[in-house]
Amino acid sequence: MLDLSDLRSAVRHEGGVSRRLFLAYGVALAALPLLADRVASAATRPATRAAFGGADPFTLGVASGDPEPAGMVLWTRLAPAPLEPGGGMPPVPVNVAWEVAEDDGMRKVVQRGTAVAAPDLGHAVHVEVDGLRPDRWYWYRFKAGDATSPIGRTRTAPPADATPGALNFAFASCQHYEAGLFTAYEHLAQDELDLVVHLGDYIYEGGPGAKPIRQHSGTRATHTLAEYRARHNQYRADPLLQAAHARCPWVVTWDDHEVANNYAGDVPSPPNRKIDHAAFLARRAAAYQAYYEAMPLRRACLPSGPNLTLYRTSRFGRLAEFQVLDTRQYRTDQPHDEKPSELDAAALEPKNTLLGRPQREWLQASLSKSTATWNVLAQQVMMGMVDRKPGPEHAYSMDQWGSAATERMELVKFLGDRKIANPVVLTGDIHSNWVNDLRPDDRRPEQPVVATEFVGTSISSGGNGVDHPKSLATTLAENPCVKYHNAERGYVRCTVTPGKWVSDYVAVEDVTKPGGRVVKRATFAVEAGRAGAVRG
After folding, report:
1. Is the pTM of this model over 0.70?
2. Less CB within 10 Å around the terminal CB: N or C of the chain?
3. Class for the domain spanning 167-208+235-535
4. What is the DSSP letter of 505?
């Protein structure tokens, strides 16, 4: 029998973890389920409120995601006691009925069916609805025995060959439960949005904080499937987050904290390098499974051990096409132990990657065949090459695209050379707002602007921020690519039409107390056919 150290050596020899390698060493990782092959097939049983201890099984609300012209994913999870082992559910599959209606009173039901809430997936339910009319709003709910879920609102995408007059959406990221309240979602839910794009750090995996605004229930950092499930459940129980999910479909991707801070592929961050690689893969498998269970994702995203294919395309007719990226699972280790650095030989090493070869080739092929007016990269870490060190020396983040600077420059050059229509990059991660004009090499301001990057701040991570960071003047003076920078909390609201893209930077003034006021700090627009952002 192989032990974990044998697997660690094999992982290093192969340069990563492949499905072939994972299956070959299945004995060593026997605890990691191949969910694609074993989603529960056992006989189910109807449930009554008594089966849930008399409690409401729909404590985590409802959600929808990945809309297409004929349908979308509907999600819920049975968890009468969300923070208890198993969410308070018995370890048996349960039938859950679902309905989709054309009205918010659920009188004009147009689709219904039954799904299975299986213990193998933490009693999560993922329903892939089909056969609906395109470009329409719908309402949905679930029933388990005599319990009924809240009613959610969702919509289908426009037909693939249609060009709608407008898309209204918001993007958000980084919602640290302990650092502040999810006030931004309270206001986001009041906006009339067609879509929300979440760019990662949906949960934070760390142990208890020193001075939390509110404390998570764990006694240590998350490592096991049960711990990741409980952390997701606590976040999902937040009523403001639930309300935002219930208003419109979401398109989601992850960053690092869904697993572990600043991890790169199968490599933990430098402070945790003593962790055995096989043990880290076991942790990653648990985190990936918990993420799938908690998100409105299609069956195509079911994890297989420590692997989960998350990159995909989401279209809104011919108006906008979103390439949803994963810059964590396939990336090479960060140079310089993640410390900010010059773009030296280590950072410019051509083998460094955030995407990995298969994802990069998929991305280029998807962009090349797109007929959309706006081509959007929904991804995690800042692409703008921002020097954060005053004076003649330079320091670029090694946890952003600076760690794979050659891949980043080639990608932006590809956008320009192939004349990809109106490329826009959406970014999270950094807990601050930015607007960046992207050139193949941002260190050379004489190069033409190819794309615009809108970087959104955190929902709550970092606690209350500031409108004008101390380094703002220096940052703007030394980085011609930067058009705007702010370090408050909030989200970015976007209005997209065939002729213009408008991004409103919405800031929450106080995330430490309920009822925080929001203010629109800045508006930037990009005209179709003209690269670069202009302040409105």
Report:
1. yes
2. N
3. alpha beta
4. E
